[in-house]
Amino acid sequence: MDARVITWFLGPVVLLAVVVNLARWVGAGRLDAFASRARRRATLGSVVGALLAYAVAQGGVDRVDASSSGEGATAHPAVPALAAVAGIVVAALFERWAPRVPWPGSRREASLGIRRGTESVRLTRHYVAGLVLCAVGLVVGWVTSGPDGRSGLRAWEGVVVTTTSSYPGRAYTLGTLGGLALLAAVTWLALGAVDSRPAFVDDPELDRALRLGARVRVLRWSAAGALVTAAGLCLTIGPSLNDVTQRLRGAVEVAGMPAAPVAPGDWTQNVAFALTALGVVALAVALFSLLWDAPAVPRSRRPKQPAASPVSPVSRVSPGSPVSPEGLRSR
């Protein structure tokens, strides 16, 4: 995979996510001690997760024979998914360290109704769309790769042309599927940890905000990881196939062979154009997902304590005890 998808997009965007989270925390309003502690923990988890994901992404880039602009650098297609896994693991760990019950005697128990409205449907759709686009890219890469599985290939009437750079063909399919499977498993476990957290039934508004925020911090990594992986596949396969197609036509013409297919009848090149466009869209949606804002943490509300029942002065007088004149007058 062309590593410029990581170095030009994922790295700067992850650093932007760090700045945005810190800015939101600094500019947020004042809260009580418990809500402030919960918000501080969420911000710290987002920042640590972003920095770790950035380190994983940069560690997966192979800069051998790369130019100063990054051209020629390669990375395994699963690197964005693994970077997202690192971010999800941090989010899950910080969820395990959630603040305790904010006040003595407050109930923190299981509740099904309180979890309604915390599903993060749109982020989930982005995540699923990224996985589907990854599957499309892997299928196209498998079909159009050469015998070595690391280069793209097109042939026409005995003329064979291959790509000159690394190509996400069949040699990378199993590794990429493994990275995506790991991303799906870690996402499922992290969301399970969020759902199994006992609810603050005395303060549903606070519980929904904390629970939905925890789901967002998991799913935005899942969606971004799947979408950037898909974008890396599409933006590597699409331009590579287009380049191979152009060189194939030139080689066929020089060899005096029958003309190779041309647009719009060249379906391989049409697929290359479509994948390139889908890769650009995937990057835009990944940026939108990675910067998805969690709901604001409201002030915690101490549950109302049952009022003490009034006790008349008479009930406090025991038999045989002396009664003062003031007590008789009060009755």
From TrEMBL:
Protein name: DUF1206 domain-containing protein
Annotated transmembrane regions: 6-26, 38-57, 77-98, 126-144, 171-191, 218-238, 271-292
The keyword Transmembrane helix is annotated on this UniProt entry: yes
Keywords, alphabetical: Membrane, Transmembrane, Transmembrane helix
Keyword field contains Transmembrane helix: yes
Compositional bias ranges of the Low complexity kind: 306-325
Chain positions covered by the region annotation Disordered: 299-331
Highest taxon of source: Bacteria
